[in-house]
Amino acid sequence: MSKTISFNELRRIKDSLPDGTMHSIADRLNVNVQTVRNYFGGSNYAFGKNCGMHIEPGPDGGIVVLDDTTIYDMAVEILKEQSKEKEE
Q1: Residue 61 region, left (φ>0) first, then alpha (ψ -120 to 50), else beta?
Q2: Among 7, 44, 73, 77, whose CB has the most other CB atoms within 10 angstroms?
Q3: In whole angstroms, what separates CA 39 from the centre of its chain?
């Protein structure tokens, strides 16, 4: 299932993640950590793969279409858990 968001929103999510999250997601999905970084807007394809992220120029950093939301969903879940812990 694909998802469309702004590039700036995708970067905001990435920047809000706790330290070590990229490695944690990569380990859980059995992919290279650079592949996860590329998902959030990185561009080092020598060490990581493209994860089906398509960017179109536009306002708010442009529009991003995520072909597979697995990494996005994991990141959002981590942020929800982090928010719950802060409330307690």
Answers
A1: left
A2: 7
A3: 5
